[in-house]
Design brief:
This protein is of the alpha/beta class. Helices cover 22% and strands 14% of the residues. Helix 2 runs parallel beside helix 3 and helix 4 packs parallel to helix 5. The longest helix is centred in the middle third of the chain and has 18 residues. The chain is globular and about 45 Å long. The N terminus is likely disordered. This is Alpha-galactosidase. One of its GO terms (molecular function) is alpha-galactosidase activity.
């Protein structure tokens, strides 16, 4: 289980295949749907033990992770609170290293990683290719090398890498490619195999350029727990010509950050399957289209 605090074809400088991972699509557990921001060291360890006890580990669900995404309130539209997740409020002074929330993870991420590994499972972590995560904690843009090195020191096995607060570094495949390739290179440089799961919502035709730098890539807006719904929250009829597949920009109003663009968010299971249908040839061992989390 990847218990995360719970991966391009323009240039070939970094290849997902270099890490030897995800020869088949990853299987695991993600904290977000059930627990959202309310995660902790004890919760992750308890979940890991449950995955073993229920036999899910033996079925291949060996990767689970804690993720932080925004906490959502549906009053006055979608409003996103500052979600703490595993992140402390700021990086370590002087070094710039990522730091875990000492209240939720009092023994640190390495301690949790050791305990998850002792169960025969794997552990994953979440960050964003932006100044901040979607929950307004520190992101990894500009800190790729130091974050990748720290994840390797913590013996992390999986990185889910989001797209919030990206400083406008999108709009063409090359711009998006370089932003995500920076983390791919940094992960490969650590020498530790870390499955790289890109989450840029299919922006700039991810499936055309992520195949050499990532083990998986989200190819649509966020999934919604409905199977056949088609509505204006997910208006694109095809990802091949969808210009705004997910959140694009945010603005702050008091303590909340409000999405300005929300096209193709809250996509139904059926809509994402439709999106994915013509993209199968892009996938293969070590590189996969990511249709978002399994809804049950």
């Amino acid at each position: 289980m990847l218990a995360l605090l719970s991966i391009l074809g323009l240039v070939g400088s970094a290849k997902a295949a270099d890490n030897g991972l995800a020869r088949t699509p990853q299987m695991g557990w993600n904290t977000w749907n059930k627990f959202a921001c309310d995660i902790s060291e004890n919760l992750i360890l308890s979940a890991g033990k449950a995955i073993v006890a229920t036999g899910l580990k033996d079925l291949g669900y060996n990767c689970g992770y804690q993720r932080t995404s925004p906490c959502v309130s549906m009053t006055q539209g979608a409003m996103h609170s500052r979600c703490r997740s595993w992140h402390a409020a700021s990086r370590e002074a002087g070094t710039g290293k990522p730091v875990a929330d000492s209240t939720r993870f009092p023994n640190g991420i390495k301690h949790l990683s050791d305990n998850i590994h002792s169960l025969g499972l794997k552990i994953g972590i979440y960050s964003s290719a932006g100044l901040y995560t979607c929950g307004r904690r520190f992101g990894s843009l500009g800190y790729e090398q130091i974050d990748a090195k720290t994840y390797a020191e913590w013996e992390i096995d999986y990185l889910k890498y989001d797209n919030c607060y990206n400083e406008g570094r999108h709009g063409t495949p090359l711009i998006s490619y370089e932003r995500y390739a920076n983390m791919s290179r940094a992960l490969n440089a650590t020498g530790r195999p870390i499955l790289y799961s890109m989450c840029n919502w299919g922006e700039d035709g991810t499936w055309n350029w992520a195949t050499e730098i990532a083990n998986s890539w989200r190819m649509s807006g966020d999934i919604k727990d409905t199977f056949a719904g088609y509505d204006d929250r997910c208006p694109c009829t095809s990802m091949l010509d969808c210009k705004l597949p997910g959140y694009r920009e945010f603005k702050f109003a008091g303590q909340f950050c409000i999405p300005i663009f929300t096209l193709s968010k809250d996509c139904s299971v059926a809509r994402i399957l439709d999106f994915a249908a013509p993209l199968g040839q892009k996938a293969g061992p070590g590189r996969w289209n990511d249709l978002d989390m399994l809804e049950v």
